Amino acid sequence: MMSVVGAQPFIKPMQTSPSVSPGIQRRHTLPASEVRPLNTQDAISVFEIEREAFISVSGECPLHLDEVRHFLTLCPEFSMGWFEEGRLVAFIIGSLWDQDRLTSDALTLHKPCGSTVHIHVLAVHRTFRQQGKGPILMWRYLQYLRCLPNVRRAVLMCEDFLIPFYRKSGFKVLGRCAITVANLTFTEMWYPISGHAYMRRNSERTGCLISRIIQLD
């Protein structure tokens, strides 16, 4: 079984210059921007963003609220949320899979012995779209996966109009996906993780501990 103890993607808040005079105390201590793993307390915020992002476009959500809670309970270390002043603005939820191609079981199962990360959903709050947050968060997520020695690739399924978006992040088309939802069909895409052996060795040498820090630009 893959061990990810101490490898969760805790990310230091972005440091910003004080915007108030020294004599005025801050009214809150929330970081201006941070990325961290999601937990079940974030589930409602996750689902609200997901529902708004997908229902209007395809009529279906990749994950329903109970499924969001399911994966954030089983494998929160394969999730990542971007927060602005404590507010969730973008997120990714994934789980492990143990087969070459996705099947319907991949929609609900987490396979701890698998070497493939199935990315279930990437979504950005409507207020923060067209700012590049989706690609940035995906890049950081893939960087994090390179710290996990047993992960060999990431896969996802998407509608055809999203293929160019994921290609820009380095994903390649694997073929038509065997999964259909209602009348929707999907393309399966993959991203190689195993090609980064040098980075993996460095990560293993440093342990990829919880204290591993990645600063937001």
Automatic annotation (TrEMBL):
Give its E.C. classification number: 2.3.1.87
Question: Molecular function (GO) terms listed?
Answer: aralkylamine N-acetyltransferase activity
Q: In which pathway does it act?
A: Aromatic compound metabolism; melatonin biosynthesis; melatonin from serotonin: step 1/2
Q: Which domain of life is it from?
A: Eukaryota
The record's InterPro entries line, in alphabetical order, gives: Acyl_CoA_acyltransferase, GNAT_dom, SNAT-like
Give the UniProt keywords, A-Z.
Acyltransferase, Biological rhythms, Cytoplasm, Melatonin biosynthesis, Phosphoprotein, Transferase
Which compartments does it reside in?
A: Cytoplasm
All copies of the N-acetyltransferase domain together span 33-204
Gene3D superfamilies annotated for this entry? Answer: 3.40.630.30
What's any one GO cellular component for it? cytoplasm
- Which PROSITE patterns does the UniProt record give? GNAT
Which stretches are annotated as coiled coil? none
What's an example Gene Ontology biological process for this entry?
response to light stimulus
Task: Please name the Pfam families in this protein's record.
Answer: Acetyltransf_1
Catalysis: reaction(s): a 2-arylethylamine + acetyl-CoA = an N-acetyl-2-arylethylamine + CoA + H(+)
- Spell out the family assignment given in the record's similarity comment: Belongs to the acetyltransferase family. AANAT subfamily.
Q: What is this protein called?
A: Serotonin N-acetyltransferase
- Organism for this UniProt entry: Cyprinodon variegatus (Sheepshead minnow)
